[in-house]
């Protein structure tokens, strides 16, 4: 089953976030979702920061943390996606990612994290500059790059599958669920300013700003 959901993210924003969500009928399979900034004349994929390798699907929380579980309330899941989109907007406009996040790879932290962002090495980590930055700088940069770019990303850019991009642009019949998935790595990184399940979207965004 496919869902197309629009979120205002913030009142007065000149675009909206559109989520294309592939919900499998088999509960043991994970939900996959892609996000795009949309206007009347444009569709722009939201990424690659905190998206899954290599299909560019949303990576809004770490399943091991129990933020949302398969079979849970879809409205609560969309709340989480909206918080993730708000963080993406903050990154685009302000220049850094607000809130806790997971970034397990040395090269990922070196190339993506700003000094004042929360380090992604563990849930209770401090700011990156005060946590892992010095040890990351001292690491073998080549080996770190191979581990992240080769091992995690498979030497491929994170981007949506062609049939998902076609769907957001042209509409029509959605692809079969299996056609929208990849057999590559599913990265279960956490990436959002933690939100409150069931919150109204505008309240969720306001709550996120209070957490910066």
Attribute tags:
212 residues, alpha+beta, disordered C terminus
Q: Numbering strands along the chain, what is their spatial order in the largest sheet? A: 1-2-3-4
User: Approximately what portion of the residues adopt beta-strand conformation?
Assistant: 5-15%
Average residue pLDDT: 82
> Helix count, per DSSP?
6
**How many angstroms does the end-to-end distance come to?**
35 Å
- Topology order in helix (H) and strand (E) letters: EEEEHHHHHH
**Shape, per Cα inertia axes:** globular
Derived from helix and strand composition plus strand pairing, the structural class reads: alpha+beta
Describe the structure in your own words.
The chain is of the alpha+beta class and 212 residues long. The chain has one domain. The protein is built from six helices and four strands. Strands 1-2-3-4 form a four-stranded antiparallel beta sheet, with helices on both faces. Helix 1 packs across helix 6. The longest helix has 20 residues. The N and C termini lie far apart (35 Å). 36% of the residues are buried. The C terminus is likely disordered.
What order do the helices and strands come in, and which of them pair?
Layout: E1 2-7, E2 16-22, E3 32-38, E4 43-45, H1 74-93, H2 106-112, H3 133-138, H4 141-152, H5 162-170, H6 201-210
Helix pairs in contact: 1-6
In short:
This protein is α+β, with helices and mostly antiparallel strands and 212 residues long. The protein has 6 helices and 4 strands, in the order ββββαααααα. α1 crosses α6.
